[in-house]
Automatic annotation (TrEMBL), chain A:
Organism lineage string: Bacteria, Thermotogati, Thermotogota, Thermotogae, Thermotogales
Species whose genome carries this gene: Thermosipho japonicus
Protein name (database record): Pyruvate synthase subunit PorA
E.C. number: 1.2.7.1
An individual GO BP term: response to oxidative stress
Domain Pyruvate flavodoxin/ferredoxin oxidoreductase pyrimidine binding positions: 19-243
Cross-referenced NCBIfam families: PorA_Arch (NF040682)
Reaction(s) this enzyme catalyzes, per UniProt: 2 oxidized [2Fe-2S]-[ferredoxin] + pyruvate + CoA = 2 reduced [2Fe-2S]-[ferredoxin] + acetyl-CoA + CO2 + H(+)
UniProt key word Cytoplasm: no
TrEMBL record, chain B:
InterPro entries from the UniProt entry: PorB-like, THDP-binding, TPP_enzyme_TPP-bd
Keywords assigned by UniProt, alphabetized: Oxidoreductase, Pyruvate
Start and end residues of each Thiamine pyrophosphate enzyme TPP-binding domain: 55-224
Any one Pfam family match given in the protein's UniProt record, by short name: TPP_enzyme_C
Molecular function terms, GO-annotated: pyruvate synthase activity; thiamine pyrophosphate binding
Ranges annotated as biased composition (Polar residues): 152-169
Protein name per the record: Pyruvate ferredoxin oxidoreductase beta subunit
EC number assigned by the record: 1.2.7.1
Cited SUPFAM superfamilies: Thiamin diphosphate-binding fold (THDP-binding) (SSF52518)
């Protein structure tokens, strides 16, 4: 394992901004929105101090932030932005355009509840609203992962088999504002890892003029969508390659699924983001009591790592899925995906859906323990959505 | 270098500046000439144009995949963000120039953003205002056909009172749109660190000069071009230039410029023709003319046009040699 030289106590926002500093993107266009704001602020300071060569566009809205990075990326620049909640919602239209234009934009998302009513705290409703936008979604558990995944995202997005934008999700306030110890790579190591931008069909290659964003009617639109679908299929392979390379320089190995104590686990809990950390702790406690429990944290939600999950869940006694977002009139998004994957496995486990933490509501060990206990007693009902930490 | 017509005619006799023929705009549409006049000026002055376009007639008609009528770099993003998109392109240019990648330091790049009146006066105003406030070096050109023509003649913030549209039609009870056209030129001029001008394809030399000025201006420029839609203005295919000319001669579309707050009327019409002449030449006002309150509406418009003309002349006098920044 490489020696750690840059171990610092920082907030997740600082960790992400530091990754952006090391990436030194050509263009960053961003608008401040809680709880993403410190990312933009730290980065703006880097620009002001001349620490990065980035041209920063302090736009008048998130809609323009995404529009400007689309313009910049199409022009041939390495372009990044960051947002959260309503800012991401305001970008929504252009989020789709970025993906369909196959622009390798990387965006940090400090996940936050989507209005209304207005709420500034963490949940995953913002990212889930972009689930089908064609963006790759990486999910961080803590500041370390937010940093690492931001660096990896550049490589995945720009890979010639992928050419898709990536959003790096990290829980608003919990990760963005919480202080943790983070091991940073040396600047040179990080710089070498992300490498020079790989550009395709740049607008500014004026010798070979191209038309970006044409009108695409029923005679080609479908084929172009199929190409996007195909590009997504390459992501898992590229993710693994990039993770392998990242492990060599950092000693930290990522996989599509982060697995904790699952080898002999009879009951597995699945969750995205920071709560996976709390679950790991609870699993340790339950293990001491003799329960065979484990955690699976999808490091990536789009594309959804279905095959790996199927292999892993086949034959287990119980699977408990925790969602930090609701889908009104349907099943919660992570649960829906896991349940759908389980349809094809040989020996289906019992499965249960738990929604928690909406609008920043605290999730505690006893909540997680309660959900596990439901599983232990055979009380998981596939068709019932339950709530953790809700006053009823 | 100052441009002259002969020079431009010779230069582009067998070459398409920016936009080629074969696009699918309606016969007689004024919009392609707006783009052409701007791009030929840039090319003639040695600039390499890069074009961004808002969703609209011209965007959908010139880039039907797998074809394109553009022989210069072109990007369309969405309806309301041509200015923001081009601000990203222009910023990328500066970043790449600094880093020595992709961009030729010996070339003069000219960044253009185009939008119709919908994408400019209405839904795109925020992104336009933001980009101009930030001072990106680009030229935004609105081709103003006074409505959402691409989707079938709906009202926009640029639609004049009494014009027939499908979302505020003239009916038994209502006389269509009652509000005057939004004065986008003054809104943009109020950004202060900007060069703003109105142009018309009926006055090509004035048009070329203003584009030249915009290219030389150290900061953002905004050019508003009168661009009749022959289809929904209900005029013949060969009438776009004639109607534009009448718009200028009546004072309905005064030709002027504002450079950092300094006004200059570039075509001094000795005696303005009555606005009624402009209105009566177009089928879109026919339903209005049948209404009993037609005179009232036309007179009100006439009063506005006259007072604005007088105000412009006064502003020219008052702001002479007094740039605001």
């Amino acid at each position: 394992m490489p020696e750690v030289k840059n171990r610092q106590a920082v907030t997740g926002a600082q960790a992400v901004a530091n990754a952006m500093r090391q990436i030194n993107p050509d263009v960053v266009a961003a608008y401040p929105i809680t709880p993403q704001t410190p990312v933009v602020e730290y980065f703006a300071q880097y620009v002001a101090d001349g620490v990065v060569e980035t041209e920063m566009i302090p736009v008048e809205s998130e809609h323009s932030a995404m529009s400007a990075v689309v313009g910049a990326a199409a022009a041939g620049a390495r372009a990044m932005t960051a947002t959260a909640a309503n800012g991401l919602a305001l970008m929504h239209e252009i989020v789709y355009i970025a993906a369909s234009s196959r622009l390798p934009i990387v965006m940090a998302v400090a996940n936050r509840a989507l209005s209304g009513p207005i709420n500034i705290h963490c949940d995953h409703s913002d990212a889930m609203a972009e689930r089908d936008s064609g963006w790759i979604q990486l999910w961080a558990e803590n500041a370390q992962e937010a940093y690492d995944l931001t660096l990896m995202a550049i490589r995945i997005a720009e890979h010639e088999d992928v050419r898709l934008p990536v959003m790096v999700n990290f829980d608003g306030f919990i990760i963005s504002h919480g202080v943790e110890v983070v091991d940073f790579l040396d600047d040179e190591v990080a710089k070498k890892f992300v490498g020079e931008p790989k550009v395709m069909y740049p607008l500014l290659d004026t010798e070979h003029p191209v038309t970006h964003g044409p009108l695409d009617l029923y005679d080609y639109y479908f084929e172009h969508k199929r190409q996007q679908i195909e590009a997504m299929k390459h992501v898992e392979k590229v993710f693994k390659e990039v993770a392998e390379e990242f492990a060599k320089i950092s000693g930290r190995k990522y996989d599509l699924l982060d697995k904790y104590k699952i080898d002999d686990a009879e009951y597995i809990m699945i969750a995205l983001g920071s709560t996976a950390g709390t679950i790991k702790y609870t699993v340790d406690l339950l293990r001491e009591e003799g329960h065979k429990v484990g955690v699976v944290k999808p490091q990536i939600f789009r594309p959804f790592p279905k095959n790996e999950l199927q292999e892993l869940l086949n034959g287990r006694k119980g699977v408990i899925v925790l969602d930090r977002a609701a889908s009104f009139g349907a099943e919660a998004p992570l649960y829906e995906a896991v349940k759908s994957a389980l349809y094809e496995v040989a020996v289906r486990p019992q499965i249960g859906s738990y929604v928690y933490g909406l609008g920043g509501r605290d999730i505690k060990i006893e909540h997680i323990r309660k959900a596990f206990e439901d599983a232990f007693s055979g009380n998981l009902i596939a068709d019932e959505e339950r709530y953790l930490g809700l006053r009823e | 270098m100052a441009l002259n017509i002969m020079q431009l005619a010779t230069m582009f006799a067998d070459k398409h500046p920016g936009i080629t023929s074969g696009h699918r705009l309606c016969p007689g549409c004024a919009a392609p000439n707006v783009a052409k006049f701007a791009l030929m000026t840039a090319e003639a002055l040695g600039y390499t144009p890069v074009v961004g376009f808002a969703t609209g007639c011209m965007e959908v008609s010139t880039t039907i995949y797998p074809y394109t009528a553009w022989n210069v770099p072109y990007i369309h993003n969405a309806f309301e963000n041509a200015a923001a998109t081009v601000s990203g392109v222009e910023t990328a240019y500066r970043a790449l120039l600094k880093k020595g990648r992709l961009v030729d330091p010996n070339k003069k790049y000219a960044f253009f953003a185009f939008g119709g009146d919908g994408g400019t006066y209405d839904i795109g105003l925020q992104s336009l205002s933001g980009a101009v406030e930030r001072g990106h070096k680009f030229i935004y050109i609105v081709y103003d056909n006074e409505g959402y023509m691409n989707t079938g003649n709906q009202r926009s913030g640029a639609t004049p009172p009494g014009s027939q549209t499908t979302t505020q039609p003239v009916g038994k009870k209502l006389s269509g749109k009652i509000q005057l056209k939004k004065n986008i030129v003054e809104i943009m001029a109020a950004h202060e660190n900007v060069y703003v001008a109105t142009v018309s394809t009926s006055e090509p030399m004035d048009f070329f000069k203003k584009i030249e000025k915009a290219l030389n201006f150290d900061g953002p420029s905004f050019i508003a071009a009168m661009s009749p839609c022959v289809r929904f203005w209900r005029v013949n295919d060969d009438k776009a230039v004639e109607i534009s000319k009448l718009a200028v001669e009546t004072g309905y579309w005064p030709l002027y410029e504002v450079e950092r707050g300094v006004y200059r009327v570039t075509k001094k019409v000795k005696e303005l023709k009555p606005v009624r002449e402009f209105i009566e030449k177009q089928g879109r006002f026919r339903p209005l003319l049948k209404r009993p309150d037609a005179d009232e509406i036309i007179n009100e418009l006439q009063e506005y046009v006259t007072s604005r003309w007088e105000r412009l002349l006064a502003l020219e006098e008052a702001t002479k040699d007094k740039p605001i920044r």
